[in-house]
């Protein structure tokens, strides 16, 4: 884990996202005290803000008892790892269920249980807006607002935006006007003060397709406009920005591109 910081530095990154365990498996070897210490030391040395992304197997909206149990244990384990590593945010996709209302209620109950099992933790869960693939919930700001309103200790929850997911979910932020309308809507429904992280991905797929396929910033269906708006938006000056494209060899270039957008008039 501790090697992630130096690797991010090599790309010229100013923040990073990690997995605290294999994102496509339930089980994970225990995290040693040495590894936690080394990680915290690296965070101190580099000064880079870090967020963690949760396992892709987790579904807090499931009705199926065994699946639900495994999901809850997994989130508790990941949040515990974040706490030990000093990572302030664990980003989670809210979950899926064929019935929207029922699913959102189940997600809130699951979050209540996670919170009850992790009292006084500093590390917090950020619910990520999704592309709305299949029966995934969280692709409308209203879904996130509903989960926030039904979760007892909602003050422990934050939000993570993802430009690709928003666009795929039907939020057209590809123009300057569109960008501002989407952010105003987000502010009105969930509150921008809850947004601690933004995933900076373009989309391979068109507006409203509800298919989640990330593309490099400015090279997909969204284009550069919202990234320029975001990089210059004073409301996000302290928000962590993360690239989630499958091209690590081009991260350095993408980071430079984003930084030049921030400087452009
Ligand atoms: Zn994302």
TrEMBL record:
Pfam families: AP_endonuc_2 (PF01261). Zn(2+) 1 binds at residues 53, 93, 128. One of its GO terms (biological process) is base-excision repair. Keywords: DNA damage, DNA repair, Endonuclease, Hydrolase, Metal-binding, Nuclease, Zinc. The keyword Cytoplasm does not apply. InterPro entries: AP_endonuc_2, AP_endonuc_F2_Zn_BS, Xyl_isomerase-like_sf, Xyl_isomerase-like_TIM-brl. Zn(2+) 2 binds at residues 128, 162, 199, 244. SMART domains: AP2Ec. Residues 5-260 form the Xylose isomerase-like TIM barrel domain. Its cofactor is Zn(2+). Zn(2+) 3 binds at residues 165, 212, 214. Its EC number is 3.1.21.2. It catalyses: Endonucleolytic cleavage to 5'-phosphooligonucleotide end-products. Binds 3 Zn(2+) ions. One of its GO terms (molecular function) is phosphoric diester hydrolase activity. Belongs to the AP endonuclease 2 family. HAMAP family: Nfo (MF_00152). Endonuclease IV plays a role in DNA repair. It cleaves phosphodiester bonds at apurinic or apyrimidinic (AP) sites, generating a 3'-hydroxyl group and a 5'-terminal sugar phosphate. This is Probable endonuclease 4. The lineage of its organism: Bacteria, Pseudomonadati, Myxococcota, Myxococcia, Myxococcales.
